[in-house]
Sequence to fold (324 residues):
Amino acid sequence: MKELPRIIKVLKERNSFLVTSHIHPDGDSIGASLALACALERMGKRVEIILEDSVPKLYQFLPGAENIRKVSKIDDPPFFEVACVLDCHTEKRIGSVANLVKGADLSITIDHHPDEGGMGRINLVNSSASSACELIFEIIRAFKIEITLELALYLYTGLVTDTGFFQFANTTPRTHQIVASLIQAGVVPEQVASKLNETKDISWLKLLSSALGSLRIDEEGEVALVKLKSAAMNRAGRREIETEEIAEILFRARGVKLALLLRELENGKTKLSARSKPPVSAEELCKAFGGGGHPQAAGAILDLGLKEAERAILKEAGRLSSDR
Ligand SMILES: [Mn+2]
Fold:
């Protein structure tokens, strides 16, 4: 955190700021951007938040989210003295906002992902922080301005999304100390949880029921497979169930190491999405069908109907586990 005093100095001295963050914004990137912008504005600075993508619906409840601009909608970009890049630190993570960042006098990156150098002239990269919001909290405290309810709400949203409501390994005593002061400032955890968690509709629930109704488990109880027929997806208005959501549910059962979601595509092919726990490799399985991904998250498209694909996938999964 040795860069903190330098960053505070720049933020206090300069007057116009671009605040940006990564593509596919999440609760932390949006919370951190809104919090920093709000604090700078309170100190009388000119600030704009510009992102590559629009703010997902899920986070539009945050006050001021409507003022976040999408870079493609800006014809005549204004000049900024300082660009602040939050929750990421490589150029490719911010999309074409990189052009605006390059145009600024000075750039600062504030991130909690493991260091890869940093793209700013001043880089505050601290991977022991749970979230970018945790780092922004330290900055705001150094400004000695009051943590208003609005600021607290932004920071709390980032903290809970990046720590999975304080369940992930990045949750520390410091995280909870910060949260204590945010609740003191007026955040109501129950209200934020409801905004962030109650996001589905009945068609999603029906689709989930259809997927879980097709559940198959291998003899060892390690491979769990669910299917989604095209008709069921049509009934749900082509609504999707995210693979992560299915995997989260299937992995709740002790012993499950490979979670598979098969979707029947309109063209008669089958899309396989796989998640696994070490030592099982979802990637190895998907590679056998011409797909790929990461060791624990991978996918493939099979030139087979749903039934044939299921048979082939289970056979391959069985073969891989007997090889281990
Ligand atoms: Mn983050």
